[in-house]
Amino acid sequence: xxxxxxxxxxxxxxxxxxxxxxxxxxxxxxxxxxxxxxxxxxxxxxxxxxxxxxxxxxxxxxxxxxxxxxxxxxxxxxxxxxxxxxxxxxxxxxxxxxxxxxxxxxxxxxxxxxxxxxxxxxxxxxxxxxxxxxxxxxxxxxxxxxxxxxxxxxxxxxxxxxxxxxxxxxxxxxxxxxxxxxxxxxxxxxxxxxxxxxxxxxxxxxxxxxxxxxxxxxxxxxxxxxxxxxxxxxxxxxxxxxxxxxxxxxxxxxxxxxxxxxxxxxxxxxxxxxxxxxxxxxxxxxxxxxxxxxxxxxxxxxxxxxxxxxxxxxxxxxxxxxxxxxxxxxxxxxxxxxxxxxxxxxxxxxxxxxxxxxxxxxxxxxxxxxxxxxxxxxxxxxx
Length: 383
Known about the structure:
The chain is of the alpha+beta class. It has a domain at 27-198: Nuclear Transport Factor 2, Chain: A, CATH 3.10.450. 26% of the residues lie in helices and 33% in strands. It has 10 helices and 14 strands. The protein has helices at 39-43, 64-77, 84-87, 104-117, 188-194, 199-212, 247-260, 267-270, 288-301, 372-380, and strands spanning 3-7, 18-22, 88-96, 99-102, 122-133, 137-149, 163-175, 178-186, 271-279, 283-286, 306-316, 322-333, 347-359, 362-370. It has an 8-stranded mixed sheet with strand order 1-2-11-12-13-14-9-10. The longest helix has 14 residues, at 64-77.
């Protein structure tokens, strides 16, 4: 299994991005899109020969997918919270749309709070798309279906005794058995609605409470303009189109052409007609008409919206299909109408992930996840 890393060209969309590509991962136990993944298959790997170089990792992990799935299972299903001390570095940085947090003690505390609120919570692996190696570090984009019953106190208030589900993605940078950096997005709004709570009112109260104790908003409000375009010029030029299909180029062109150039007609060239997309907060779209309407609605609320691609992981080859994980940031100003209430002029910034299935040079299916509740809090943050 070989890995290659490279810096991408410096277009506005690609600024600072870093892309990793790997082989097809055929030797690793697949978990893609299998609701109710049989965890016993992963537990049975303990003590078996390694299928991948894993220098510095505990000997019972046979490959990076096994590590990610079984560590998650042990911490959350088996309640081995103390395992965090062995699998997170002491100075780990956690990135979310709410801002950054530092140190594994914070990871331990947050995990206990979540388990206390949802004691029967179960994280079910939907897919792990990975890249890298045990020398430079592995990147893993872990899509999780999370299920639990709110029988304890949470940051949202007293127990509701309601059951909630959500999808989430945890992108980890792992080296020598420890997660040294992590990027997380969860469908938190979906949980809030299922608990029977008013998301708008809760966002107002949460933002006010955090501001009252000195928490700074994730996006400073003395901001400059969003640099989707420079002055009166056009968006940055597209990456040159290669003679043959290349996943990285395809992804970069899609985000630049559709999202930053606003060429929505190009969606037909990137996606199959019966395109299936799961969008944050339980929006399940079918077909290109619904997909275009979703993007238009988001851009109506944030007319200067810009998408920055931070990282791409890809598994697959032209003879089969590609599974791709994209980590991105969205910036924009809330100056238009939409589901987020009357325009406030607030600048927002969101961390998000998109997992794609690509066949025959086109997107076939998509899972796009971001924390919409964090977006509400930014909009309602007291001035």
